[in-house]
Fold these 2 entries.
Entry 1:
Amino acid sequence: MTSLLNNRTIVIMGVANERSIAWGIAKSLNEHGAQLIFTYRKERSRDKLIKLLADHDITAKTVSCDVLDDASIIAAFEQIGAEVGTIHGLVHSVAFAEKDELQGEYADTSREGYIMAQNSSAYSLVAVAREAKKLMTEGGSIVTQSYIGAERVVRNYNVMGVAKAALEASVKYLAEDLGKYGIRVNAISAGPIRTLAAKGVSGFNDIMSTIEEKAPLRRNVDQEEVGDATMFLLSNLSRGITGDVLHVDSGYHIMA
Ligand code: NDP
Ligand code: KAL
């Protein structure tokens, strides 16, 4: 395997279990020589993470970070700074909306539900980018995870679609702010992948079938494909790319 990320230290947020997109990303970054640091929210996620790291012979620190809490974010990045000094990359693979907001009409979204989705899924990128920047003293690359529901109306995605639209707009504004420090900011827009967050949400199976029928590649994508594309955006191969959204969706987004 090549060493595209040798001597790069990268923080990964959002591994809940082996199915997480962030875990697919972790495997790709590890294969390409990166030193990894993981953040988690729930103790259950930390336990899963520690087992996964042991099973894959990966040595990495795990740090607690709840993206709804500024003090937790600041403490996490202070701890990371104390451990490694400089970081070169950040993977933001975190989103949350209350279940009742992910069905029925968007028009019925509650104020609390709207704020929760925006806070967890969009503002969280702004807050973590600000802290990560302090540790990116040699430049860096930040990658977040979006979905086509940011661009078009996807049934049931509702309040999360509006949060992802804010996330993609934040990618552009952050790219402009951080570009002068040699820090790039991009998003991947992945096709549907069966993960814990996707579990039990209405309409997921139908969307997977639609991709098999309509996407140019006539198949769904997996965590490894998103992992490799994220690796590219974190590596020097993508050094001229910032403020962009790269679709890893079997080409579905080009179809009418
Ligand atoms: P997972 O359930 O595996 O990951 C979601 C992660 O979000 C969990 O690790 C969870 O941590 C974390 N999280 C939620 N709230 C918080 C919080 N307040 N603080 C810290 N962490 C938090 O699902 P995915 O891998 O599918 O999701 C990762 C990203 O990919 C999300 O942004 C999602 O929107 C996006 N995406 C997913 C697609 C899919 O089809 N699966 C398609 C396109 C985009 P914990 O459990 O410890 O709270
Ligand atoms: C159109 C699609 C079908 C489903 C609609 C909405 C999916 C929203 C994703 C969002 C992240 C899901 C949740 O926040 C679920 C949450 O309410 C309950 N689950 C949890 O708390 C688990 C335990 C933890 C790990 O989850 C989180 N989020 O912390 C969208 C599909 C086709 C594509 C998807 C799933 C996109 C996406 O953004 O994830």
Entry 2:
Amino acid sequence: AEEKKFIRLDEVKQHGKSADRKWVIKGTRVFDITDWIAAHPGGPVIIRAVGGSIDPYWDIFSIHQNPDVYDILEDYFIGDIDPRDLVNGAVGSDNIEDPFVNDPPRDSSLIQHTEKPCNAETPTSLLDTFITPNEVFYVRNHLWVPEVEGTTHTLTVELPDGNEKEYTLAELKSKFAPFHITATLQCSGNRRKHMSAGARHAAGLQWDIGAISNAKWTGVRLRDVLRDAGVDVDARYLEDAKHVQFVGAEAYGASIPIDKALQARGDVMLAYEMNGRALPRDHGYPLRVLVPGHTAARSVKWLEKIILSEEESQSQWQQRDYKCFGPNQTGKDLDWSSAPAIQETPVQSAMTSIKEVSPGSFDASRELQKPGLTEDAVQVAGYALSGGGREIIRVDISADGGSTWQQAVLLPDEAEGQQSWSWKRWHAIVSRPVVGSEMVVKAIDDGYNTQPESYVGQYNFRGNLTTAWHRVRYPFSE
Ligand code: MTE
Ligand code: MO
């Protein structure tokens, strides 16, 4: 029998990212993966783990929990961790690097669904301003927050012919005209909790109504940068360039169709400021894409590379997670390629505040006052949004579960941008519902698209794009 080789932890640590030979630990076993790194399907992100344990990374990238992947690793086995370095038969947790150690601190008013990675929604009480302050803007991270240097950061643009062009952040700022827009970002999973409750359990984070926020963004036009990099942005047809892929510094990636990227009125931005300040680390410092009118998954943070290609991004976030199937189609034996990735989003609305008011006691603005109101009433407010730059033209409110309706007042917020990229806030005063009845909201956009009535018909097993009528039962405090 072959003699067992034991390796000390300190020796593994010396085989980190600057070493010639790069080692990783899986469980208590050591592998020299140097010759395999270039073939890693996930790209150079694997460098992050060398010199230590890959277990915390494999927990995040669950795609690795698969016999084929274990087989690949087996070819590179070089020995076991020396028993003197084991605690109860395992590598002690203080020797396993936490990928999230360098994440930034977060505002305590955010509602955290998971801490590592950070997934936190804006509390309902803070969803009622047109602009969401940076500190309480919802956070949706699939991985850790990468440490990116603002002063030395460069963006690489790869053209279909393989040529590359590089821009430092400073070059982007000085070479191209800055512009700004207000735009809402909404996660595809916003309101998933309602779908789980109203139909059946949908897989994923159980967001309430706060995986959505609105900000004023400053940056340069993707269209201008692509033109400078050599793309014929006015061509009617571009050979080999059907999609624009975005790669984040921590390994996240997604893409959008070339038409959206090049549209003169599409306002796709490489953003470096959010509400007048440098992007916070959680929101992509120092550079992110902002794809207004599309699901927020395409607005890649910590933007490092742009690739023009025939194909969409091959990331799991383009190929799998952010797609919708029929209510009867479930994860087993599903042909993921049969559904397109979510891009533009449907009509959405939600109630963010419901207050009981008595005649004469309104704190609402004057346009909301109903002269002659003599009964107790309810003042309700919320947001409404459509995708693709379509504008919300009407919001309907019902105080009796959807039998009778009235129109809310749309607030005159100053949205900026060439199309409608921001949520509309609305207010209404309605009669007080009878006990046990539901307040309901639905919105309509300028294509007369509206929201479905029921979660059951809208159900999809990943719980994406939950937009069925938002309902709240009276009395409101549960
Ligand atoms: N970009 C990177 N690099 N990594 C990510 O995890 N998450 C995406 C998108 N861009 C993500 C990303 C998703 S799913 C959403 S909803 C938005 O970022 C969230 O943006 P925010 O955290 O600034 O609100
Ligand atoms: Mo998302």
